[in-house]
Amino acid sequence: MKKLKRSQRLVDMTQFLLEKPHDLLPLSTFAERYGAAKSSISEDLAIIKEVFEGEGMGELQTHAGAAGGVKFIPRMPMEMALSFVRGLISELEHSDRILPGGYLYMSDLLGQPSLMEQAGKIIATAFYGVPIDTVMTVETKGIPLAYATAAQLGLPVVLVRRDHKVTEGSAVSINYVSGSHKSIHTMSLSRRALKEKSRVLIVDDFMKAGGTVGGMVDLLGEFNAEVAGVGVLVESDAVGTEERLLHDYVSLVRLGEVDSKERRISAYPGNLFSV
């Protein structure tokens, strides 16, 4: 790489770190990349660390020793997360989101990369320090959120299918009960997709009674895998606590009443903000 001015180097280093969250990067990587002394690189990193942490972008951790280096950990302060969620609630409460049958239209929000990036960062922050090997979701609407969360954690995504695909080889399939409709569904996961005894973060866009997430939990049991946590974008109050099939999870938004007749929606910050 050609010799850069310090200001240019700072910009390039920042971008490099943002693209490699949770990767331990030796100082020699930057020294060789920019043809600069490690002492100069250390000074640059101190500036970047101050900005990252001052602006609530995350932490820049320094690891000493021959095998050390720097590691960027994306994190979002709780007050910034709450501000984002309040904005999301404003979007969700628009009356034109009510669909026949009292369903809520969310696909446009799930299709906004910038919005999903922020939501994924909040979920990743909620599970900071928890050992996780991979992020799991079920097709299809939860995929953008799962990938956004995994990107912040620097982890792969495992996709559970509702119908087994021949192109994925042999798979494990299970039946599960949908908590909202009390009907039987099937989900499957390729045997090659997940290593046994993995620690998995389950991510989903919407949870009513928790039947789908419960199905993924059961599916993980077939792989001797462990649930490291469950994060959902929106949970519904349409079912009572005693009817919910899942109780240990983190939610960003809690959906209250969806009144089709009055065209009214009420939503509140999720349980992440009540602990």
TrEMBL record:
Oligomer status and interactors: Homodimer.
Plastid among keywords: no
Domain Phosphoribosyltransferase span(s) in chain numbering: 119-249
Keyword Ribosomal protein carried by entry: no
GO molecular function, one term: DNA binding
GO biological process assignments: negative regulation of DNA-templated transcription; negative regulation of purine nucleobase metabolic process
Sequence ranges assigned to domain Bacterial purine repressor N-terminal in this UniProt record: 5-74
Gene name, Swiss-Prot/TrEMBL: purR
Pfam family, one: PuR_N
Keywords annotated in UniProt: DNA-binding, Transcription, Transcription regulation
Gene3D superfamilies: 3.40.50.2020, Winged helix-like DNA-binding domain superfamily/Winged helix DNA-binding domain (1.10.10.10)
Signal peptide location: none
Protein name stated in the entry: Pur operon repressor
Similarity comment text for this entry: Belongs to the purine/pyrimidine phosphoribosyltransferase family. PurR subfamily.
